[in-house]
Amino acid sequence: LRAKVDQMQGRAAAQPVATHPAFAGLLQLQAGSTYSVDSMSLAVALMAGPSTDGAWCGVVGTAELGLEAAAAAGVELRRTILVPDPGEAWLEVAAALIDVLGVVVLRAPAHVAAKDVSRIGARLRQRGGILIAHGDWPRSEARLSMRDVEWVGVGQGYGHLQARRVTVEVQRGTAPARRARLWLPDVEQAIRRVESVPAEAPTRLRSVS
Question: Cβ(97)–Cβ(60) under 8 Å?
């Protein structure tokens, strides 16, 4: 019934979108929704599922995207559009990309007005796209954050960073938060659950606050 009503109102019904396997049990992406994250690493992880599945993606308002790391996570760079500095037209650029791309990652340089949030939300529902906001975004479907970050490969004044494991927390409205330990990334630059890490991974860890 909901799908029929959405169709009659000219809106794309919320449908599951390919989501990275590491998020199984944590989050299922839905078309027409907005998700907010507190790090570009989480934005890349969310973008990787749809990108691997064939979606075109865009990244607006930030130069923090590490192309090598994004490719290793599963983001297809040949189907990714980068607009690191849209200037004052950042909202218009994001809206235009939502019209033609499956996923748009946006780092807004300023507070987003309620009317603009509503306008972007309506566009997402019509196009069946996904917005991943790096930072706060009102009325997000879910908010993702990283906790308890630990690095692999750091010694007492020697070594180099090889992998990172984190607790990913997913908050949806007032429901209890869901949490899982993820390698973000592991020693092979892949994103996966901690329990599925390769046995040969280094064990030297150092907590980072």
Answer: yes
10: helix, coil or strand?
coil
pLDDT recorded at residue 6: 52
Do residues 70 and 186 make contact, with C-beta atoms less than 8 angstroms apart?
no
State the Cα–Cα distance between residues 53 and 199, nearest whole angstrom: 28
The torsion region of residue 139 among left (phi > 0), alpha (psi -120 to 50) and beta comes to left
Identity of the residue numbered 84: P
Strand partners, 18: none
Tokens representing 8 are 């009659």
Distance CA 128, CA 122 (A): 10
pLDDT averaged over consecutive 10-residue blocks of the chain (209 residues)?
A: 52 80 96 96 97 97 92 96 95 96 94 93 95 94 95 67 92 94 92 68 41
